[in-house]
Amino acid sequence: MRRELKILPKIGINEVKLSMTSSDLKNIIGELDKKNVNGKEFFLYQDEYIFHFVDDVLVSISVNNPDVIFLNNQKIDLMNESKQFLFKENPYFVDGCYIFPQYNMSIYGLDFPDDGIQLTIYSDNQKNIYEKDIKLAFQFRSIDNQLINLKYEITPYQSVGLLKFGMQLSEIEKIWGVPLKISKNKKKGITTENRTNSQAMYNEKGQLIQLALNCKEEVFIDNKLLSKFGSKLDSLKNEEYFINRNYKIYFKFGIALDNLGNLSSNDFIYIFSEEMIPYWNDIYRPLI
Hints:
Blueprint: E1 5-8, E2 12-13, E3 16-17, H1 22-29, E4 33-36, E5 41-46, E6 49-54, E7 57-64, E8 68-71, E9 74-77, H2 82-89, E10 92-94, E11 97-100, E12 105-108, E13 118-122, H3 127-130, E14 138-139, E15 152-155, E16 159-160, E17 163-164, H4 169-176, E18 181-185, E19 190-195, E20 198-202, E21 208-214, E22 219-221, E23 224-225, H5 226-229, H6 234-237, E24 242-244, E25 247-250, E26 255-257, E27 268-272, H7 277-281
Parallel strand pairs: 1-8, 15-22
Antiparallel strand pairs: 1-2, 2-3, 4-5, 5-6, 6-7, 7-13, 8-9, 10-11, 10-14, 11-12, 12-13, 15-16, 16-17, 18-19, 19-20, 20-21, 21-27, 22-23, 24-25, 25-26, 26-27
């Protein structure tokens, strides 16, 4: 099969169509490896493709590690343009998998593509399997969170875009969606949520006290792009700062910059609440 993937929603991928028999499939792409599940169910494999059959009818097509897909006559680079794609389509997010019920499509691993991606197109009679948990899931963006809100404007000690200090975990999830990982420090009463390119930290009351944003995101101060210029930003050039290990901290703005303010796409900007000032003042504190 061709490496260019033309997605035909609810129909198939390229020349392979859902509802084909295994003989139909072999006539198109040749011999395949087979794995039986039970008398009625089996899988056929070829290279990066997995074909799922029930009663000798193709019910799903999976492709491992697709780079580019064509959907609705639009070319989508999954490795470099996934965020724009997800914002446009607004899929549901369930256990690391994005579900697109309008297309009968799922994509697993899109947030960490280096670890592998799997795209699946499934038939209508499989919707109850693939979409069973979406009623409890969050969509990629909330109804009110339009694309323009990807701009993170810092209001010192108050908010970062739509995210306000003091918000509860459930309020942050309505804006950012379900986190990829949650960790808790019971001794300090701190909860930390990690998402792609971001981190949120909460106190023992469940209130937001700090955000960390990767410099791949657009982070602004006074409508100027902090995530690009770092400490070279005009707004910071004449401001007092404090050095704590590898961080340059501007208490006037409630921010700490990685790499002493010489930011690259791998660095983070930390935006903290007043509750976190003693933490950033303490040169003997544990590393973040």
